[in-house]
Amino acid sequence: MFLLKKIHKWLSILVGLQLLIWLSTGLFFNLMDHQKTSGEKFSQRPAIAEVNENNLVEPQSVLLKSKPTVSLTQISLLEHPYYLLTHDRSLYSHFNNNYSLVDAYSGREVIIDEVMASELAQASYKGKAGISSVIKMSPPYDDIPREQNNVWQINYADEVNTSVYIDAGSGRVVKHSNDDKRFADIFFMLHFMDYGVEGSFNNIQIIIFAIFTFFFALTGFIWTIELGINGQYKVNFGIKKRKLLLFDMNQQPMGEFEVTTKSSLLDELIEHDIALSSTCGGGGSCGQCKIRCDKKTKITSTEHVHFTDEQLQQGYRLACQHDATEIEKLTLVDVTQAKKHTLELTNSEFISPYIKELRFKIIGGYNLTFKAGAHIRFYIPPAKGVSIPMRLPDAFKRHWHDTEHLEYEHKACSRSYSLANGNGQIEGGANELIFTIKIQNSPNKSVLPGVGSNYLCNLGLGQTIEAVGPFERFYAKPPSNKTMMLIGAGSGIAPLRSLIEEQLNQTDKGRHTNRDIYFFYGARSETDLLYKDEFFKLSKRHPHFHYYPVLSRPPNGWSGAKGYVQDLLKLHINSIYQIENVEFYLCGPNNMMSATINLLKTNNVNAKNIAFDEFT
C-alpha cells in the first residue's frame, strides 16, 4: 500500500501538471483571434484558368507516355490548365504521394522549379511585400508537421514573416504560415501533448498519459477503498462524548477521561494534559504518537509503515489515526509530561529573506525547563492568510517578486517547531522561547502556503497563541569527552544553535569539559547565513568551538567553503581521528539529511553516535 501511495502521489503531479496546461491553453484558444492565428492574413484564392477544350491534349495520349498512373485530373495552376497524374496515392494529400505534372495544351511534362514555385506562391498571396527567399525542403517541417511530401518554401519580407508552402510535385498550395500562427502552434502543441511535433493528437505521448491517468484513477480508487475499510471516512452527526479508560506505561489505571468524537485521540488527550509527541501535526508521517489498544482496532496504511506486523498484532497504533468512536481503553506508550502554555509574541524579525526569528514570553510568569533541541507544538487556529508576508522589509521584497499574491482560509491545525535557545536547563529554565521559522511559500494557486509558518510569522507583537510542550526527542548525549559534530542547513539551525548554546554555557559554568564542537552550516547565499556574526564571535571566545559556513551560491569574493554542507563534511571526514569518538547531530532539509546519513554509514559511523531532527 505504501508503494501504491507513492505511485499515486507522483502520478498526481504528472496528471495535475498536464491538466493545468490544458486549462491554460484552452483559455488561450477561447481568447485568441482565430482569424489572426490561422496564418491566412495575406492568403487569397488563385485565379482559375479559362480552358479552351479544343486545344486540350487527349488525356489518353498523356497516359500512354507516362509511367503507371492511378488517376489523371485536370487542374488549374497560374491560370493555365494542367494534367495531374497520380502514380502512388495515399489516403490524404499530405501523406506521401507521387505525382507528375503535364501541360494540358502541349502535353509536355512540367517540373515545378524555383521560378514556378514563386509564381504559384505569389498567386495565393495578396500582400505587398517582396519575396525574401525560396527554399526547397524535405520533411519534417516545423510549420507543417503533418506534411510528408517535398515542398517549396517561399518566404515574404512582411511584418508577420509569411511563408507559403507549395507541394513540389503537384503545385498545390499546402499552407500559409506566419509568426502569429507559429505562436499559436506552441499552444496547440502543449494542448495536444504533441511534444514530438507530429501535427497530430494521436501520438505516443498522449497514449502514455492516458495510461498514467488510468493508473492514477485506479490507485486513488484503491486508496479510497482502503481508507473506508480502515474507518477513515466517518460521518458524525453532532459532537458526542464518551468515557475513555486510560492506563499508563506500567499498565496502571489512570482513570476514566471524558473525550469527544470530533477530534483525533492525539488532540483529545492534550485536553487532559496528556501530551503525546508529534512533529507532523497529526498527519501520521512522524509515527511518534504511539499508543496500545485492542488488537482488533482497525489498522491504517500509515501504521503499516511505522509498526512491524508483530507490534500491530500487539495493538500498537498511532493516536492521530483514531478517534474515540473506535477505542474504549488504551495504554500510553511514550508520554511526555508536557502542558499547555499561552505564549505572547514579544519580537518578530526577518533574519533572512525567508526566515524569521520569533520570540515569545510565557503568560503566567513561570520558566520552562527543557533540554536543548526540544520542540514545541503550536495550535494554529482557523484564520485567513496571505501568501506574501506582512511587514516585509524593503531589502527582502525582491526575493518575493515571483510569489503570486494569494488570499486563503485555513482550518485549525497544529505544527511543531524546534526551540532555538538552549538555556532551558540553566538557572531554573527559560521564560523567553526563541524560534527560527522558514516561511513556506506557495508554488502555485492550487497549493496553499505553509499554514503554520505563515500564521506564526504574520502574528503581530502582543498577540498570543496556545502551545504545548516541550517535547524532547533530539538532544545532546550525557557529558563526555567525545567530539560533537553538528551539521545543518536552512532553518535546521534552530535545534543546533540550541545545542551549541547549551554546551558552551555549561562549559562556562565548569559543568562540562572543553570538548571540541564542530559546526558545519550550509546556506545558499551570504544573506542566508543565519547568526553568522554570533558564531564567529563564539569561535573566537571558545577555542574548542569551530564554525564552518558553506555557500552553494557564493558571491564574488567569498573566501569560505563553496558547495553543499554534506560535501564539505565529506572533505573533512577522512581526517577525523578516531571517528568512533565523535557524536554527530544533524538537522536540515531531507536531501541534506539523507546524503549526510549515507556518508556517515559509508564511513562506518555507529548509528548510536548519529542523532537527527527530521523535517516532517
From TrEMBL:
Residues 243-339 form the 2Fe-2S ferredoxin-type domain. The keyword Transmembrane helix applies. Residues 338-477 form the FAD-binding FR-type domain. The chain crosses the membrane at residues 12-32, 206-225. GO terms for molecular function: iron-sulfur cluster binding; oxidoreductase activity. InterPro entries: 2Fe-2S_ferredoxin-like_sf, 2Fe-2S_ferredoxin-type, Beta-grasp_dom_sf, FAD-bd_FR_type, Flavoprot_Pyr_Nucl_cyt_Rdtase, FNR_nucleotide-bd, OxRdtase_FAD/NAD-bd, Riboflavin_synthase-like_b-brl. It comes from the Bacteria. Keywords: FAD, Flavoprotein, Membrane, Transmembrane, Transmembrane helix, Ubiquinone. This is 2Fe-2S iron-sulfur cluster binding domain-containing protein. It comes from Colwellia ponticola. The lineage of its organism: Bacteria, Pseudomonadati, Pseudomonadota, Gammaproteobacteria, Alteromonadales.
